[in-house]
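In this section we walk through a basic example: taking a raw amino acid sequence and producing a predicted 3D structure, encoded as discrete structure tokens. The instruction is simple. Fold the sequence below.
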Amino acid sequence: MPLRFPFSIPAPSLAFTAWRVASHDAAWPCLRPLLVACALAVLPSALASAQTPPDPQTAAAATPRPVPAGEHVEPRVIGTPGTVTLGVAGHLDRAFSTEDFFTTNYTAHVDASYFLTRKLVVRAGLAGSGALGGDDDSTMPVGTGAPALRGFAGALYYFTPRSIWSVYTGADYWGQLTQRTAGDHGMAVGTLGLQAAISSRVSVFAEYGYGLNLSRGADGEAITRMLGRVGVRLRIRQ
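The resulting token sequence is shown next.
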């Protein structure tokens, strides 16, 4: 039956002490057999613990997992300098003047954006539209307000792009590529929007725009435009 003690003594120290006392202290002959028996009892367990290999599961849990090549933990932010995004959206827009009733256009929109600095972004894209309502087709078949393919380019300023969401504002130049009339100089559009990152690569945005045509209408009137847009932007380069 193994010996049990109410206290803990390191096995090697106990064995060594027992050997010294048993070998060199002749004054205690009565303790010599007891100490030798203790040393022999604890010596096998001490040798076994020294030779036992570590538990593989314990060693694996203590070792940090290496990050595989190509696995990156990216922050969920709007963008940093050098970031390139591709945006896809749909929106409704309508032009207004005091002389004509223009159609309401439904538009598919695609753009590409590039962060020049921490907060300044340049972008360009295309928007193609169809029409709902308006005057008879013969009244305004071409020109501002007609369904057409338009190109645009401009700049945006993000207030907090290194956070999970940011308000932004900016301006774009819109040029009509189809159904264009002579003397059409395009339109300047101011933009106010909100963008929120839902992952490290995907964000959603909503923006409102108000524009002024750079050329007058047929009767010299000013032509303005309002648009609302909701879409998704994909970060294709960090």
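Looking at the output, two observations stand out. Residues 84-237 form a domain with the Porin fold (CATH 2.40.160.20). The chain has a mean pLDDT of 77. In the next section we compare this with other chains.
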